[in-house]
Amino acid sequence: MRRPESRLVYATGAGRVCPGCGFPTNACRCKARAALASANAQKGPVRVGRLTAGRGGKGVSVITGLGLLPADLETLAKALKQRCGTGGRVMDGVIEIQGEHRDTLVEELQKRGIDAKRAGG
Q: Per-residue DSSP letters for 20-82?
């Protein structure tokens, strides 16, 4: 763990950095972050939608409202990408899967015991 007086603010290699612990946000070790994640998990169903903005017209399936820790999000995203046979990423607590896979993703999340609902048309 880094000392507060030498805390990293930003680095091109690590990307965004947690203000609490100084680690990259995907490897954050803050207790406050864990408390926030558990609070987000109790807010309601997970939404699986579709976005095309800023992607040259190409759509991605977006999963929001999971409220998991970054390491758990990465693990879930990897499994979902394998299930859909496509790429994707995790950014700011949201999983993005390339292509139109909303029905497949809702089905897979419900198999895992997550209350997921399809959002949008």
A: TT-SBGGG---HHHHHHHHHHHTSS-EEEEEE-TTTTT--EEEEE-----HHHHHHHHHHHHH
